[in-house]
């Protein structure tokens, strides 16, 4: 049975439209569709949980053909995988030891606190995005109460680098090298918004809802209302997910319109001809090369945009986003490794369930699978 959406402030027309869309899917082959996505999601979670290393972190990247495992790592991508296992361990007790081991490593090696402000410190710097992701991990964790003080300190640390106009600084502790702050904030700003609103959902501490709205107002103006000047696709999914949550808490039409503006633009990137469902347009190479992590997070964001279109009663956009979701999922399913790779020196559990970095590429990376799992989870919820 489909979940019923009954949020204060949603119009009667919106509710009627939602019920009409739900009726359509209840009479379609929803069972098969859900089964395929659910199986892919389980495969992904199994791969992440099977690949926790001796030090408590997850396998970051490897070449499935040669078995080469580089020593490179990335805090944000590791923490996103940590959150997947944290969430899943609520319903799967077998994952609790995996989550606990991973969390203990992170808190012992990466977490710092000074003057009541918490932050992630890695490679002699502290990224806003990493601080936000660790907060999301703690909020998602079944051990949240054990780390409630640290979660509060992390939240204070994020708000500490929020500027008067609502924008964020890129770093809690900046590196010595030069960097492009505007580019980094296309990722970090939405991640910070999302972490703040999720912390509010967990604690109901209104000061952090107010802080979230303050930043949301700034970035709605910059990334949606001034889209032509500031557009970069990476910010779309993170801000979409955060605005989705804000809209449910306070159905401000500005949040819905911002979601629509950003995701309508994003769909210009989705391939509907050659690599169907992939988010890459050769006419805009400045937006990066094809990558499964991008495909997956953009697909996840579209699921949140689709949900807002349903709630707002926007039939045209809901249909457009649903069509994009369908081919986005098709693309992700094709990228998942579900069988043994002939000639690979790796044990099959080191790659089965993961997603290739791109079609025809032997490399896998933890965030390609993590983002896909999150996308599958949200799609199963809204369809």
Structure in a nutshell:
The protein is mostly helical and 383 residues long. The chain has helices at residues 12-26, 30-50, 75-88, 96-109, 128-140, 148-160, 181-203, 206-225, 227-230, 235-249, 253-266, 292-312, 315-335, 366-382, and strands spanning 61-63, 111-114, 117-120, 126-127, 171-173, 363-365.
> Which H/E pattern describes the elements?
HHEHHEEEHHEHHHHHHHEH
Mean pLDDT: 93
First-last Cα distance: 10 Å
Largest sheet: 2 strands, antiparallel
Strand % is under 5%
Gross morphology is globular
Determine the structural class based on helices, strands and strand pairing: mainly alpha
Number of helices: 14
Number of strands: 6
> Which regions are unreliable across 5 or more consecutive residues at pLDDT < 50?
1-28
Q: Helical content, roughly?
A: 55-70%
Widest sheet, order of strands = 1-6
Number of domains: 2
Radius of gyration: 20 Å
Characterization of the model:
- The chain has 383 residues and is mainly α.
- It contains 14 helices and 6 strands.
- The strands form 3 sheets. A two-stranded antiparallel ribbon has the order 1-6.
- α5 runs parallel beside α7 and α11 (253-266) crosses α12 (292-312).
- The longest helix has 23 residues, at 181-203.
- The radius of gyration is 20 Å and the shape is globular.
Topology of helices and strands:
Layout: H1 12-26, H2 30-50, E1 61-63, H3 75-88, H4 96-109, E2 111-114, E3 117-120, E4 126-127, H5 128-140, H6 148-160, E5 171-173, H7 181-203, H8 206-225, H9 227-230, H10 235-249, H11 253-266, H12 292-312, H13 315-335, E6 363-365, H14 366-382
Antiparallel strand pairs: 1-6, 2-3, 4-5
Helix pairs in contact: 2-14, 3-5, 3-14, 5-6, 5-7, 7-8, 7-10, 8-10, 8-11, 10-11, 10-12, 11-12, 12-13, 12-14
């Amino acid at each position: 049975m489909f979940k019923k959406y009954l949020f204060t402030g949603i119009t009667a027309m919106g509710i009627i439209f939602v019920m009409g869309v739900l009726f359509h899917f209840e009479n379609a082959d929803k069972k098969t569709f859900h089964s395929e996505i659910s199986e892919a999601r389980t495969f992904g979670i199994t791969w992440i949980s099977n690949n926790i290393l001796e030090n408590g972190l997850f396998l970051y990247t490897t070449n499935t053909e040669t078995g080469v495992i580089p020593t490179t790592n990335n805090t944000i991508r590791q923490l996103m995988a940590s959150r997947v296992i944290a969430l899943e361990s609520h319903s799967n007790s077998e994952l609790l030891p995996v989550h606990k081991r991973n969390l203990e490593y992170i808190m012992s090696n990466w977490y710092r606190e000074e003057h009541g402000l918490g932050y992630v410190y890695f490679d002699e710097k502290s990224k806003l995005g990493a601080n936000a992701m660790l907060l999301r991990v703690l909020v998602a964790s079944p051990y949240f109460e054990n780390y409630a003080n640290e979660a509060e300190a992390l939240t204070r640390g994020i708000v500490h680098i929020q500027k008067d106009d609502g924008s964020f600084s890129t770093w809690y502790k900046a590196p010595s090298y030069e960097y492009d702050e505007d580019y980094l904030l296309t990722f970090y700003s939405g991640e910070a918004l999302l972490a703040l609103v999720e912390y509010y959902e967990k604690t109901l501490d209104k000061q952090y809802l107010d802080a979230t709205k303050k930043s949301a107002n700034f970035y709605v103006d910059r990334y949606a209302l001034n889209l032509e000047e500031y557009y970069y696709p990476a910010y779309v999914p993170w801000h979409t997910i955060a605005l989705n949550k804000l809209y449910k808490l306070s159905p401000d039409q500005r949040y819905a319109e911002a979601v629509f503006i950003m995701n309508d633009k994003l769909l210009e990137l989705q391939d509907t001809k050659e690599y169907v469902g992939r988010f890459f347009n050769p006419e805009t190479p400045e937006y990066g090369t094809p990558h499964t992590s991008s495909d997956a997070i953009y697909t996840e964001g579209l699921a949140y945009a689709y949900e807002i279109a349903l709630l707002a009663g926007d039939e045209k956009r809901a249909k457009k986003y649903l069509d994009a979701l369908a081919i986005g999922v098709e693309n992700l399913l094709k990228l998942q490794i579900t069988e043994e790779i002939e000639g690979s020196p790796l044990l099959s559990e080191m790659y089965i369930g993961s997603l290739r970095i791109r079609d025809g590429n032997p490399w896998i990376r933890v965030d390609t699978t993590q983002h896909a799992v999150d996308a599958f989870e949200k799609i199963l919820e809204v369809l």
